[in-house]
Amino acid sequence: MVRLYRSGADSAEQGDIVVIGVPDESRSHAKRKGTSRAPGVLRIASNESEFFERGGKRIPTSPMRGTLDNNKRVFDAGDIADKQKLYKTVFDLASRGKIPVMIGGDHSLTTEALRAVSGATGKKLSLLYFDAHPDFVSSARNYYGSVLTDSAQSLDFRKSMLVGTRAAEPEELENASKAGLQIVTPLDIVELGVRKVADMIVAKTSGNSVYISVDLDCLDPAFAPGVSVPSPGGLSSADLVYLLNRAISSGNLAGMDIVELSPDYDVNGMTANLAARILSECIASIR
Q1: What is the residue-wise DSSP string for 231-279?
Q2: CA of 282: how far to CAs of 125, 166, 285, in Å?
Q3: Where do the domains of the chain lie?
Q4: Which CATH fold would you assign to the domain 17-285?
């Protein structure tokens, strides 16, 4: 199996940040299939697009913000397709102060990850959910569209935020309103400015352990065509990376994931390469 070149630690015990692939799309209702291949595709994209080879040496590119030096120990733990094993693995990592970073797969993996991290910390988490869709369906359960409903016991909704939302069902908007969950749409970002929204995110999550979930469909299809459920009018890639940098560098990151890459619908690998850049910029932003 392909491993991330950025994985410099020899074991999870030695690592501070542990990357886990979750090649599973069993709880997806999307007409576009293939997210189960995404972990391997993202790793290959990272290894090919973020390194140069010259004079027999492998030379990594540097992040725009933060650092990826040798003091930041990253371990690629390979893939876990079994959701029950994922829960135990993430729980064990979070209990030992490690930061688990999952690569999906469909978005339902976030439910298991949130339960595990919240259980390990003994606290409800702030959630930053970058997604075109709220995934707050309550009329159906245990699938990628009910993540927030299924994870409610693990979340502090009033200290959480949906970002990039633009394709919500009426019941999802009602559920978010009842829970006190703030929604920031792409139009809000245009109107307020990305720096103001970043300030809002940092203020909203202050004092809490934070979990960040990035569904790549939060991006406009012009930047990320290779996703399961594309929706026009989304975020730009630079705005997303900036918001993630500000959120992560403010501290208290307990875990994160990047999901819903659909390689069969990508164009010239642009979504995979962007996902790889998002992953490295997020890791670089961790303090």
Answers
A1: -SS-B-HHHHHHHHHHHHHTS-EEEEEEE-B-GGG-STTHHHHHHHHHH
A2: 19, 24, 5
A3: 17-285
A4: Arginase; Chain A (3.40.800)
DSSP 214: E
- Which amino acid belongs to residue 130? F
- Which tens digit of pLDDT belongs to each residue from 112-162? 999 999 999 999 999 999 999 999 999 999 999 999 999 999 999 999 999
Tell me if 24 sits within 8 A of 34, measured CB to CB.
Answer: no
Is the dihedral angle over the CA atoms 104, 110, 116, 122 positive or is it negative? positive
Q: Kindly report, residue by residue over 215-274, the tens digit of the pLDDT.
A: 999 999 999 999 999 999 999 999 999 999 999 999 999 999 999 999 999 999 999 999
The pair of structure tokens assigned to 184 is: 């920031």
Residue 71 is predicted with a pLDDT of 75
Query: E strands along the chain, which residues?
Result: 17-22, 51-54, 57-60, 74-79, 99-104, 126-130, 161-163, 182-184, 210-215, 253-259
Task: Give pLDDT tens digits for 14-58.
Answer: 999 999 999 999 999 999 999 999 999 999 999 999 999 999 999
